[in-house]
Amino acid sequence: MSYFRKLTNEVNRLTQMFGRDDKWLIVINADPDAMGSALALRRIMARRVADVGIARVNEIKRPDNLAMMRFLRIPNVMLTPAVKAQYDHFAMVDSQPTHHPDFKICDFSVIIDHHPVKPEFPVKAAFADIRPDYGATSSIMTEYLYNMRIRPGKLLATALVYGIKTDTQSFERHFIEADVKAFSYLAKCADMQVVRKIISSEYHRHWLKYFSKAFRKMRFVGQRGLFVYMDNLESPDILVMLADFFTRVHGLSWNVLCGVIKKQVVVIFRGDGIGRNMGHVASKVFGDIGSAGGHRGAARAEIELEKLGGKPVEEFLYKRLTGKKLPTKEKCPI
C-alpha cells in the first residue's frame, strides 16, 4: 500500500501540460502555504520546461514570511504586465482566479488549491485539482512529489513543512490524515531549526508600539471576550499579530481586533476553537455589509469605510458585535 494516495492519472495529465520550450509563471497570493506549494510545482516543472518563475500579487510585510523567503531562498517577483509578458503559460497554487483582482491579467492553465470553490465562480483550467478537505495545499503538492518519485531537498521540504504548519495552525485548525502524513514525511528531510527561526521572527521592531496602544484601548466583553479598536493602521498584519498574541492570555476564549487600513475597516477574529465558531460569527455580524468568514478559530471581515455612513467606527463595530452601546473605559476595566 502506498504511503500517499495514488495520483497516476493526475500526474500524467499534469506532465502532459509541459513542453520543452514552454515558459511557465507560477502566480501566488504569497503566504507560507502558497510559497511552499509554488516551490514544489517549480521543482516538478524544472526539468520539463524551458523556464519557470514565481510571481506574487501582494506585498510581503509579515516578518515571519520575510524570514521564510530569506532563509529558504524563495525567488519571486511582483506580478506586473511586464513580468507576465516574459511567459507564455500560467499556473496558480493555493488560490483561485477570483481570490484577487490582479489575477485577472493571466489565463491559468494549471490550478492546484485547497480552498472551497464557490458555485458562482467555478474554476476553469485545463488542469485543476481542488481539494477543500485538505488543510494545506502544501500537503497536496507533497503527494505529487511523492507520486513522481521526487525527493524534496532540505529547503523545499522545510518550506512545505512550514506551509502545512501555518495553514493548519500546527494541526489545531482543520486537517485530515493526508496533512499529517505529509508533515511526517517532510519532517525527515526538513531543517526544523530553520522552521523555529522563521517562527521566532514574528515582529517588526517598530510594531512594538502597537502593543502599548492595544493595552490602553482593550475592552473586555463578558468574562471571556476581548474587543480592541486600533484606529488607523499601516497594515492588517498588525491586527493579526495582536489577535494571535491575545489568544495566549489565560481566561480569554475569543478576541476581536479591528482598525482602518486605507479606507477599509478590517476586523480580525480569534477563538479557542472550543466555544463559538468565529467564522460563523464574522459572517453573521458583518456579512451583510462586507466580505466576512473564516474558520472556527480564526476569521476576518473587511468593510468599506463609506458603508458606515460616517458613524464612529469603534462604536459601530462594538454595537454590531455585542448588540450593546460602547461602554466607557471605567465601565469596562482591564
UniProtKB/TrEMBL annotation:
Stored Gene3D superfamilies: inorganic pyrophosphatase (n-terminal core) (3.90.1640.10)
Residue span, DDH domain: 26-164
InterPro entries in alphabetical order: DDH_dom, DHH_sf, Oligoribo/pAp-PDE_c-di-AMP_PDE
Range of residues in the leader sequence: none
Pfam families (alphabetical): DHH
Origin superkingdom: Bacteria
Name assigned to this protein: Phosphoesterase RecJ domain protein
Source organism of the structure: Solidesulfovibrio fructosivorans JJ]
